[in-house]
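Entry 12.
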Amino acid sequence: MTTKRRLYLHYLCLAGAIILGASLRFWNLGLKPLWTDEVITAIFSLGNNYNNLPLNVLFPLERVPEIFTFNPGITYAQIANNLATQSTHPPLFFCGMYSWLEGINPSCQACVKELRLLPALFGVGAIAAIYAVNNIAFSSTAGIVGALLMAVSPFAVYLSQEARHYTIPMFLITLALLGLMQIQQDIFQKKTIRIWVLVLWVLVNIIGLYVHYFFVLAFIAEILTLLVLMYWGKTKVVNKRKIWLILILSTSTVMISFMPWLLVILSHSNFSQTNWLPPPSNIAPIYQTLISWVLMVIALPVENQPLAIAASYGFLMVIFTIWVGWQAYKGLKLLYYQSKTNLATLTLLIFTIFVLLQFFAIVYFVSKDITIVPRYHFVYYPSFCALVSASITKNQKAQLIIVLVGIISCIFVVYNLVFQKPFHPEQVAQNMNLEASIPVMLVVGYSDYQDIALGLSFALALEQLRNQSVSGEYKITHPIDTSRSDSFAILSKSPNLSALWNKLSQLPIPATSKLNLWIVGPGMIEQDYPQQLALSQQTTCTIDPSHHYRIGVPYQLYQCSN
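Predicted 3D structure (tokens):
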């Protein structure tokens, strides 16, 4: 086979991997409703803040999408200030999303697809970036395998379909690893560091720090990896003083560039939104990390399934992951002992280990179990993917099996059978939509901004479902019935629950003979719900014990009559 023919097939395979990955990421982007964190993305990315929301008032449910309307003329400084005072995130992602939404569809309301499209695009970009990492670190074939594995990873597809800032830092971490590979090759093989490589590496790290706070874990791991490599290969390093000076200046530049945001970080550490992570439970963080590794290669429906089905699928996932792990272990041994791939293998392993050590330091010394959240493992996923794919480069049977299993897993992800949205807004809406002909009033008690976002996610899902009911069968069977008036309210629970019931009693309830009142009470227990509630216009609401639910938070039905 000629070199030209070989190159043609090589890049055809790369294009195929990227197209496959893009297809899986763009498939059914708008199928799943926005959940709490995605609502937070929408609020700030549209140029709004919590002060713009209709709090402590009764609001028509059909107008909830209007809350998620693009706010023109907002500056990046205003978005940054909103985040500094009302959220716990750096500003760059939200500023980028604001420009993105302004460019593609500024007139949309609650635009789910548009919000998720940018993260999906960066998810596709990460496929190309991991190809570049493996191509430089190992071989062109390893680059193709790396692109294929990331393309069909259920974990990567899940992150790409979230309207959140996970794929963008993952893409930047992959680029940072690409720079790290070139820097270590310059130090040990070319004996001098190319300035343009170093400048790009510095820029990527600076951008990453302003995209997601967890990027700092990757940056620290990069620095520690370079230190270990420099110590390990000190006899091979030429111009040590010059190289040390260059590395110190470049890392210092990254750290100094982030200093303007340091005071904001300190204030964010005291926000209540950072206190939801539980303390560690013995060795739970270890097996939770292992579960996240499983989900990076296979994900079968085990959530909300009968025990027998969940156990069977769980067993298959564990067996498959053990098999993949064994194939990867054998391949990594060969890569480590080969002189051409030893340094690259060592670099990626050290980086991954340092990130994991930081994870466990946060877990056990700060008492915040971040391993309980699979999506946070995006920090080291690029190095994990690079190592696994490089280890099976010569094992075509393993490649085929992993890719096929990955595609099946991604189909489950796309149809919301795995990596289901937290708090299940779609299921909550279905439970609340008991009777299409009876008006619904959704009331959410809130203590902090997180509760507000949760309530808005439920309201969006319920509004969509109720709107479908009116425009579908219900409209056909009741063509002249216009009496239904659904409403929504987010009421403060401060200083205690009595304030919630008092505010509720003063709301101007729509004049209707019947009303289904749903009360969502984050932090409440079943006994906190009173047996009866007296609303305005002499409306009495009686609790329905058969319709009390808890999906992360409790919500209770009251049947009201005038």
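Annotation: The beta strands are 59-60, 440-446, 487-492, 514-520, 532-535, 539-551, 553-561. The radius of gyration is 26 Å.
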